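Moderator note: this is an archived Q&A kept for reference. The question asked for a predicted structure of one protein chain; the sequence and the answer are reproduced below.
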Amino acid sequence: MTCDTAFAPNLMDIHRASSELADAAPADILRWAADRFGDDLVVTASFGDATLVHLAATTIPGVEIALIDTGYLFAETLWYAERLRSMLDLNLTIIKPRLQASDADRWQHDPDGCCGVRKVEPLNRALEGRAAWASGLRRSDSAARATAPIISYDLERRITKINPLASMSDDDVERYHRVNDLPHNPLTDRGYPSIGCWPCTRPVQPGDDARAGRWADTEKTECGLHL
């Protein structure tokens, strides 16, 4: 499978595609991405839940799915990724950061810098040589993501970004898991609706924003993956 070079990274084309796919099912959005970009498409997943990896594995069998192992992932998340790899026969690539001695415990005094070396730099390597990137970003994640488009162009990374789950609500995700009999990340039942690195993630209270447990008690809301 090869990339459809007729679909150039033209901002008007991307805007038009995003509008046309506004009401499309997530699987149809992934099929569109596979048809346009072929092997130049990579999927990134944090393995907070199984929705995106199950959709990718069943819609585009063999597509590369990248997990960034920051070195601070919960043990439960790594276990969950391996379980889904075996269960869904995932083409899973685990990418680790390239750290310096000065990066040890950086989260304690420089969380932005920590995310930069442990998340952003590995993501940039995962996207090297690719034309398109599918992520699990959803509008219901937080107010900052409420207007996330289905298709956009990441100008800094020079890559087309696809958010096939953008319109899915928390109830939609739960329903998808139930219909497809998918396991949950064990942390979900312990009050972690959004799961990142263990130093910067805590459980939330009922009724809290799903990402309220990320970088709690700070003004930080994003790690830099989604510019």
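Archived answer notes: The chain has six helices and six strands.
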